[in-house]
Amino acid sequence: MKNDPDNTQTPEGRTTRPAAGSSHSPFSILHSTLGRVAAGPRYGRIWLACVRYSVVRAMMFRFDFIMWSIVELLWMGVNVALIAVIYEHTDSIAGWNKYQMMLLIGTSMIIQRLMMGFFWSNIFELGRNVRSGNFDFFLAQPGNVLFMVSTRKLDLDSLMNVFAAIALVVYSLWQLGVAPTAWQVVTYVLLLVCSLAISYSFILLAVSLTFWIIKTEGIEGSYFSLTEFSRLPREAVKSVIINVAFVYVIPVVVVSNIPANTLLRGISPAHVLWLAGAAAVWFSMAVFVFNRGLRRYASASS
Questions:
Q1: Which is nearest to 171 in space by CA: 109, 227, 233?
Q2: Can you tell me the distance from the alpha carbon of 244 to that of 224, in angstroms, rounded to the nearest whole number?
Q3: pLDDT in tens, 120-153
Q4: Which residues constitute the domain of residue 69?
Q5: Could you tell me the end-to-end alpha-carbon distance of the chain, in angstroms, rounded to an integer?
Q6: Predicted confidence (pLDDT) per residue in 58-109, tens digit
Q7: 107 contact partners, CB below 8 Å, separation of at least 6
Q8: What angle is formed at CA 233 by the lines to CA 230 and CA 238, rounded to 5 degrees?
Q9: Total number of domains in the chain
């Protein structure tokens, strides 16, 4: 009989096999979980090293950093000016007044600037690295491949404009005379994290198709088209097809609407669970597709 590493012999010489599922026993799961927790500080140090690298790089090219920060700030200003112009001719859009709409726009900008600052450049380069074979560099790193791919560098110009977006949200609340409670603020921040996870998952899922499809630039760029829906009040989406597609299937509308409504109208447990559940589903799906693609990757040196 062939040697089977999963078989064991009893003192009487009989061969036995561990019970099905024993590899997923509570002890093995606990060991795996503790291993991830223990690795947390190490990954934290790696991320901080990446932050230092990004800061040094930005300071080496100060003019580019300043110019891109100004360009992004002007782009945000154009969006706010557009809302101001529209509300010169109307008092309400789908039940949202001027400053409620500005709060929604500010929330959408926070999510986009965080996405651009922390993940966009890294994930976007993933496609190019896979196509060129430079992805080998990440496979050689002593850490989780997805973590190394996602956090190698930061775009500080985008992160700087997060503060401008936060200022717009605070200004809108002040104009509306709304003073959210501490729990509302905490929930708002947690919902932003969920929205960021959905945005990250969408672009990771799109770029991971590079493992199967050579050219994915059009799919990658679709992220910016979809984010346009995040600036719309959910009440303004009247078409049944668009409502199903961009509220339930691809929740690009609710990623900003639910956090904004939390500040304006209070915490809705159903909406919180909805967004958190959507984030969990999208993130799990994106990681699954990435890992499947990783198995297909053919090294440039092979």
A1: 109
A2: 19
A3: 888 888 877 877 777 777 777 777 888 888 888 8
A4: 61-296
A5: 36
A6: 788 777 778 888 888 888 888 888 888 988 888 888 889 999 999 999 999 9
A7: 165, 169, 192, 256, 259, 260
A8: 105
A9: 1
The tokens describing 284, both together, are: 């799990």
pLDDT reported for residue 301: 52
Does residue 98 fall inside a structural domain?
yes
* Residues 136 and 301 sit within 8 Å (Cβ to Cβ): yes
* Segment 174-185, tens digit of pLDDT: 999 999 999 999
Q: Is 142 among the domain residues?
A: yes
* pTM score: 0.79
Contacts of 34 (CB under 8 A, 6+ apart): none
Closest by CA position to 255, among listed 283, 278, 287: 278
Least confident of 117-121, 212-216, 249-253: 212-216
Residue 175 belongs to a domain: yes
- In-domain check, residue 217: yes
| 25 or 54, greater pLDDT | 54
Residue 297 has pLDDT above 80, yes or no: no
- In three-state form (DSSP H/G/I as H, E/B as E, the rest C), the secondary structure along the chain is CCCCCCCEECCCCCEECCCCCHHHCHHHHHHHHHHHHHHHHHHHHHHHHHHHHHHHHHHHCHHHHHHHHHHHHHHHHHHHHHHHHHCCCCCCECCECHHHHHHHHHHHHHHHHHHHHHHHHHHHHHHHHHHHCCCHHHHCCCCCHHHHHHHCCCCHHHHHCHHHHHHHHHHHHHHHCCCCCHHHHHHHHHHHHHHHHHHHHHHHHHHHHHHCCCCCHHHHHHHHHHHHHHHCCHHHCCCHHHHHHHHHHCCCCHHHHHHHHHHHHCCCHHHHHHHHHHHHHHHHHHHHHHHHHHHHCCCCCC
- Identify residue 238 by its one-letter amino acid code: K
